[in-house]
Sequence to fold (575 residues):
Amino acid sequence: MRSENHAPIAPLVQARGLHYTYPDGTSALRGIDLEIHRGDYVAIIGENGSGKTTLVKHFNGLLKSTEGNVSVMGIDTRNATIAELSTRVGYVFQNPDDQICTSRVEEEVAFGAKNLGLPRDEIVRRSEKAMKETGIYHLKDQHPLYLGKGERQRVAVASILAMQPEVLIVDEPTTGQDRRQSRQMMDMIGQLYSQGYTVIIITHDMRLVADYAKRVVVLCNGKVLFDGSPADAFSRPETIKESALQPPQITQLAQMLRDFGFPPDILNAEQMYVAFKGIYARSRGI
Amino acid sequence: MSRAILLQYVSKESPIHRLDPVTKIVYVFSLSLITLFIFEPVTGLLVLIFSVLVYRAAKLEIKVLRNLFISFIPAMLMIMFVWSYTTAKTADATFVWRYGWIGLTDTALIAGSAVITRILSVISITTMLLATTTQRDIIEGFRKLGLPYIMCFIIALALRTIMVFLEDYSRIKEAQMARALEYERGPVWEKLVKVRFIVIPLLASALNRAITITSAVESRGLTVGGKRTFYHTTKMRRFEYPIVLGLIGLVIFVALTSMLFGYYTKDWFYDTWVPLGRVVVGFLAQMPR
Fold:
């Protein structure tokens, strides 16, 4: 499904001069230009209130722009219903409890597909596939509200996958979960990505951004402050300063040791090890 | 992120905002009480106009009130027609308008429109209180009026819950819409059935929140009874006392005239407002052009 050369292909999601003002007068987005291509793995980061959630809500039509426009696979979101857009862009909400309304995991996963009015066997096929993809097939007869937070989050993802969108937006998939659960969740999203989904995540966890995302969009006061690779994002002190974000600790350490010849865009322990080995060898004249 | 504008404190500089919460609470209760004695529309309309004027004096957006009024139109029409149907067989009811088996009787028209002015007045009055008084001040007002602290606390929680509930509602609605739930489409019955997909998560979250609040309150050692002191107090200014007394006097006047002389009823409407209306119309007709 994923195209290797995505340069000439039209973007899946495109925002042009996007402005959004809430009814109470808060200006949340102030001129966003952004393209999401097939095969992207984008992390949208920024402070609370920087407009992350407001931005992604435009991608599936939950919000309609006050100025500028958003198109999803060539369709202007202002002219499409949320139901139509949900088969193209799936949006998993932050709190899975906001949507659980049935008494069995299987029914919960099938909810979206049912709303699309698909034939029964297609609904069953899709929801079984979604449950297998998210690793909750063995829980299909359980009550979703009695599952753990991580599992409920998976149920929410599965119920979106059953609508077979091309783009998957996951809003803060790891809040309230321990390190191990967070990793499992991110590994699952990573698997979905390698199966061909285009993934957009919103997160505050910079280590997860460094380890998983291929592209980072930094939002600050409703504007795109930076758009590029995670290594680039964290090695720019001015971007970091303006958006009040903290790079992963290992990156901070590398930046402190810059005078000793450490590159400022180190993202993980392995890269640190390689850099250290090189510098040590040079200093010893080996 | 969506913010409910309704029933929320609006920070503005106005004479109403500066009033002591006690004055405003007395205003809310006295006017609401007065409306209970009114069964004909003209006096009702006077109360409504007064409450809307006070609302305006607080520099609040009339748009909010108008939208609230509009949302009550179906209920109002329902009241009128149902009452017409039930009063049609009574001796003193005459049909003003009739089409087949539906119609409007004068009893229903007079009592119904009185009820409508009542509902709209109470909406304006309470919206004004909630929009011009912070929740902390409302509670302070009730406390100064002598309500036990535990009751004040319950009111505070209830007010807070309304806001949280509205926020939850809009978030859950969005989450279900993202799963292709089109609850605004289809016939009425289908819509009602679809509402359960919003109500169930809403109830679940309300229950969870109740548990959280209970443990939070207990862990802070809230106890019923005993003497409490308060950091935050408000003070009534001198001119507010006559306002409060005047409002209480007005309630007593309306209650007495209503109970002793049968004012503000359908008959009183025919005896007082109708001749008065004739006089006014006659006077206007005689005026030199």
User: Anything to note?
Assistant: Chain A has a mean pLDDT of 89. The longest strand of chain A covers residues 27-36. The radius of gyration of chain A is 20 Å. Chain A touches chain B through 31 residues (CB under 8 Å).
